[in-house]
Design goal:
Blueprint: E1 8-9, H1 42-57, H2 63-74, H3 80-96, H4 98-106, H5 110-116, H6 122-136, H7 139-147, H8 151-160, H9 164-178, E2 180-181, H10 183-189, H11 192-202, H12 205-219, H13 223-231, H14 235-243, H15 250-260, H16 264-272, H17 275-285, H18 288-303, H19 306-314, H20 318-325, H21 332-346
Antiparallel strand pairs: 1-2
Amino acid sequence: MESESMYRYMPTSYSDSGDSSTAFSDCNSDRSGEFPSSPLSGGAASASLHRILLSCAAVDSSDELIDSLVAELSSPSNDLESLRCAATELRLLAKHNPENRIRIARAGAVRPLISLLSHQDPILQENGVTALLNLSLCEENKAPIAEAGAIQPLVRALKSGPTAAARENAACALLRLSQLDGLATAIGRAGAIPLLVNLLETGGPRGKKDAATTLYSLCHGLRENKLQAVHHGAVRPLLELMADSESGMVDKAAYVLHALVTTSEGKDAAVQEGGIPVLVEMVEAGTQRQKEIATLALLQICEESSTYRTMVAREGAVPPLVALSQSSNAKPKLKTKAETLIQLLRQPRSATSRSRGAAE
């Protein structure tokens, strides 16, 4: 499959933004309820539930079973109850078993699952989104899912999915697809970024984490997506999460912010939204990883602006940076970055190697 694909898997590099490999982890398989709340009734519910439990309990499922489920899902004459059962069973078969994920995709399930995202039934919508997420956990399936036209329907599900789980799982599926070369740009142009910013602002704890992780994947190294994120107001909720030690989001939000402040627009937004005190506090009182990413973000903000250097110095950044540069726990590369920033802050009005032009 991959050899014939127009897409290529693109592993993310973190070398320019500290070690974010442990700050972010890919979305796992679905977190939806194991079964829809009330898709069936009476004896049909009992019989279908029994079949689903038996088939999903097996380590592997036969090709015949999978083929029959895909056929049920693809048949225009099937009633709603049959479609719900087939979609639920395919979702659960793909939830934990890598071999099943490959078998289901090869059996032709991707297109009928994508079609469920436009179905009027909310249970089918959620099962379709979630089954696609589960299939996308297999590297071999990512390109076929993208080539089948999943991006735009997933973006619509991110916008108006019937449940929070559906919207979160749509974000996770887009995250997985964004790891293919070229698709982060396509996902950004499909309108995902403002929806992810909205999820970052209004979602629950899981939704916020999924939004931050997907935003990082979309924005890392892509100026076009970074500018979209800044334009649609990502900086403020990121700083709010960074300032809230109880959010469980400090590291994730800081890495996304760092990606955005590599643009002049991101720097300006971070300063205007009160980011300097938040970053200085992280350098002073954060974990070792938080100190690192905050130092890198401040260095980005200060490199080309004497005005911003003055603001950072007045916020009291020099003493904690000196302590960091002398810490036995700090990595040599981080010490060097801290020392570079200290030198900038001690000469806040000196000429810079690169001019900000009219903004200066």
